[in-house]
Amino acid sequence: MTAQPPDPEPEQTSREPGGGVRPGDTPPDSAQTSGLSHPQPMPSKAMPVAWLIFIGVLVVLASGFVVALALGWLKLG
What we know:
0% strand; DUF6480; transmembrane; transmembrane helix
């Protein structure tokens, strides 16, 4: 059996459909959350920069390979 809260006073209860508040009534206070409980750590910027440099080097090497093939500087096979 679950514990039931006592019935509120009839003159205190809402008569609106769905249990809402009547126009002009103030709704009950809700929980407020403001700020963080502790500072968030800043992520490192080293890995994204390293990946960008790595990808850039690969693009330059692949482009150079294609250009070398097109100009006949490399012979495959």
